[in-house]
From TrEMBL:
GO terms for cellular component: plasma membrane. Belongs to the bile acid:sodium symporter (BASS) (TC 2.A.28) family. This is Solute carrier family 10 member 7. It comes from the Eukaryota. Keywords: Membrane, Transmembrane, Transmembrane helix.
Amino acid sequence: MRLLERMRKDWFMIGIVLAIAGAKLEPSIGVNGGPLKPEITVSYIAVATIFFNSGLSLKTERLT
């Protein structure tokens, strides 16, 4: 049960490691013009997602 608790706590770091491993195994997915369209994804969607995620972590008291 301790492993599951640890995974819940460090889910973001586990996700980053899995993303890096996936990129190492199949780098052709992320090339320009590839299926992920990084020229669009990184420029717009990733930046918006980062700001949205940061906003979700704000406490309600700080927003008011």
